[in-house]
Each structure stands twice: as C-alpha cells, then as structure tokens.
Amino acid sequence: MKMQAPVIIENNLLFKQLKYEADTWKRHLSFIMEENIRMKNRLADILKDNFDQRLLPDIDSFQEILLREDARIGLLRDDIAKLDQALEKETSSIMRTKMAGIRQLMAHAEKNALQLKQDFNLFLTNNI
User: Which of 19, 32, 72, 125 has the fewest CB atoms within 10 Å, i.e. the most exposed one?
Assistant: First the structure.
C-alpha cells in the first residue's frame, strides 16, 4: 500500500489567515522581548544608583523572572517557526489544531507579560 503525501492547505484564504496570525504572534513576541530588555536595563540603572539594599532580593527576583520569561518566549518563537515551516506541508485540519495550541500559549504569554510589567512598575513606584 502506497502512503500518500499530505495535502497542503487546500484553501488559499485559510493559508493566508494562518500566515497572518503567525506573523502577528512574531511581532507580539518581539515586543514582549523588547519590554523585558527595557525592564532588565531599568533594574541595572537602579543598581547603579544609591538604592535601598533591602530591595536587592526583590530586584534579584524580578531579574530571575525576566530571564525565565525570555526562555519561554524563545521556546514559543521556536514553536512558531516550526509552524511556519509546517504551513507549507500540512493539511488544514492539522494546521488548525496546531494553531489552536499556539493561540492558547500566546494568550497566556501576553497575559503574563502584561502582569509582569504592571507588577514591575508598581514595585518600582512604591520602592524607589
């Protein structure tokens, strides 16, 4: 019995939509990464100035959280890159399933990024 190669996405409009959504996610992740860099730079600026040494554990904690978020974003970017490659090869039903999974991960990443930025700004406003 001969195996058939998967049929690529049959619907050109669907292909364009999936590509558009993946490109949007890439832009959002780039923005989140830029914000993380800005927050890490802000922490470095604070450490250069005279600051309350008692805040050092909290500052260190924020630094660790930002580094973990960078790693998570890197993994998500890898997933999206794999998805881009799969767009050319997979069927529409497989791609819809893959997109749904990444859609959930992106929603979670965006929510976490917003909360982290709010917590970070609140911490700085209240302590410096």
Answer: 125
